[in-house]
Amino acid sequence: MKYLFKYSATLVLLLVLFSSCRKEPVYDVVPNIEFKRVEKSTFDEFGLKRDRISIVVGFQDGDGNLGLTRTSDTTHADLRRPFNFGSPYYNNFITKLYIKRLQQNGESRFEEYIFPVQGFDFSGRFPRLSSDDRTEPLEGDIKYSFDITSDLFRIGDVIKLDVFIYDRTLPVPNRSNIVTTSEITLFQ
Questions:
Q1: Residue pLDDT, tens place only, 123-159
Q2: CA distance 107 to 105
Q3: How far apart are CA 1 and CA 174, in angstroms?
Q4: Residue boundaries of the structural domains of the chain
Q5: Where are the beta strands (DSSP E) in 12-76?
Q6: pTM, to two decimals
Q7: In DSSP terms, which residues pair with 184 in a beta bridge?
Q8: Contact 98, 160 (CB under 8 A)
Q9: Whose CA is closest to 143, among 71, 29, 67?
Q10: Cα separation of 159 and 153, whole Å?
């Protein structure tokens, strides 16, 4: 009886130890994203309609080096090359906007939207997703938001966006795959 209790306690202890060990996932160091959803809120301000568009993408990254610090300190690593202003890597959440246009044959198709101001788009920066510089797998969601106003688009315009992200790998950041959002009807 004494041996039965001794071995049972040891067996239970071993089961608890092994069941609490969690193996870390293994992801590629090049970020992978998947489109999850678009959230939209419409506001009317001083006779001008505004949509707040939020794009939610899921991500997996093997070394967890996603996001850039928002700072005005130009000596900070996240504002030095290749993440300096004017660099193609300054923004880490990249968007390309398409608008649905009616064709002469009566069908509609999406065409790339050319902004009236050269260099303007809805790309931007999302903050660091890890508070330290440890190299470890990360998985989760990024919610990126921007505003669209009715001075650039008409009520009822339908848009969609291609999206990809960059990580902080040096000297050249890794680029994720490209995902496409669902269609978004503006100002309704």
A1: 999 999 987 777 899 999 999 999 999 888 999 999 9
A2: 6
A3: 62
A4: 26-185
A5: 32-45, 48-61
A6: 0.83
A7: 159
A8: yes
A9: 67
A10: 10
